[in-house]
Amino acid sequence: MIDLRSDTVTRPTPGMLQAMMAAKTGDDVFGEDPTVNELETRCAALFDMEAALFCCSGTQTNQIAIKCHTQPGDEVICDADAHVYQYEAGGIAFNSGASVRLLPGNRGRITAAQVAAAINPDDVHKSASRLVCIENTSNRGGGSCYDFEALQHIRQVCKEHQLGFHLDGARLFNALVARNETPEQYGRLFDSISVCFSKGLGCPVGSVLLGSKAFIARARRYRKVLGGGMRQAGILAAAGLYALEYHIQRLETDHAHAAAIAGALQDCRFVENILPVETNIIIFETKGVTAADLVARFGVNGIRCNAVAPDRVRFVLHLDITETMVQQLIDKIRSL
Fold it and tell me: In the chain, what percentage of residues exceed pLDDT 70?
């Protein structure tokens, strides 16, 4: 079975499992897990930010960040396809009591001009615009990456209007590798960053939230409120430390595999259009068949993938997909 449903299906590599088994642990709620502390310290240094907080998921880090940035009745500005809106179970309303201003971006990417136009005036009838959330790479945008200059322009708008600026960096390392950028660039730009370890980096569990010391102190309290306090979490944090050491540059392999598969899809009679492939995600529009039917046909042929719209199918490449599997997939694509 070739599982392309998501990069969350990865299993720990033998080296990662060994690191997890050897991890030193303690009670993280008491701040006593040395491996968690090491991961948080290393991530903060990597992004040139003051502090970090290890959490169980990217949804949790995003929701904690939004809670820290907003008060009930405030408004969050994001792309209409953003993960924080589409895939976090209404958490912005449930956890923070905030409303959302959705912007029609380009493959999940919004512009500074759009943000500026969406900011509410100082009017008692309007919710207070408080936070801008962007996602890099964009999942529903087919793994699209922001131009860094565009992010700088959005940062300037946020600064001028005293808005928080949060990055959902679930697949940020894919963007960094694809665009040859550095974590420090992003750490200097955003007020808070969520980085997921259970996607392209191949860890079984975990995300890290980054920000100032005061911000992370508040975040730690909200993590507890949301039931996210973990005890001997060093077993999981050790996987993150291993991934930072060994699984970042190998993302280039996933990107190359995605490009090769996209090339095979271009001439298929069941493909209408393919979103530009920049990283490890392929989204294509179907022709003459529904996405659900095509996913079922792939399944019969030993390929697991997702229908993300009635006429769109998604493949996601990851470290469990080998070069041999990619060739097998290309052969099956051409035979369908």
Answer: 100
For 299-328, write each residue's pLDDT tens digit.
999 999 999 999 999 999 999 999 999 999
Structure tokens belonging to residue 234:
């060093």
Q: What are the tens digits of pLDDT across the range 248-260?
A: 999 999 999 999 9
Q: What's the pLDDT band for 267 if we cut at 50, 70, 90?
A: confident
In whole angstroms, give the CA distance from residue 199 to residue 265. Answer: 24
Residue 293, domain member (yes or no): yes
* Contacts with 4 (C-beta within 8 Å, 6 or more apart), sequence order: 303, 304, 305, 314, 315, 316, 317, 321, 329
How many angstroms separate the Cα of 250 from the Cα of each of 88, 254, 256, 260, 318?
29, 7, 10, 16, 10
The pLDDT of residue 319 is 97
**Of 59, 53, 129, whose CA–CA distance to 88 is shortest?**
59
What pLDDT was estimated at residue 336? 85
Same domain, 202 and 104: yes
Point out the domain boundary residue: 246, 270, 303.
246
Q: Are 1 and 304 in contact (CB under 8 A)?
A: yes
Helix or strand (DSSP H, E) at 43: helix 34-46
- Is 3 within a domain? no
CB 245 within 8 A of CB 86: no
Q: Per the domain annotation, does 2 fall within a domain?
A: no
Q: What is the pTM of this model?
A: 0.97
For residue 42, what are the CA distances in angstroms to 76, 131, 184, 241, 247? 30, 27, 12, 8, 15
Q: Which domain holds residue 281?
A: 250-335
Spatial CB neighbours of 175, under 8 Å, sequence gap ≥ 6: 136, 137, 145, 146, 169, 181, 279
Tell me if 59 sits within 8 A of 199, measured CB to CB: no
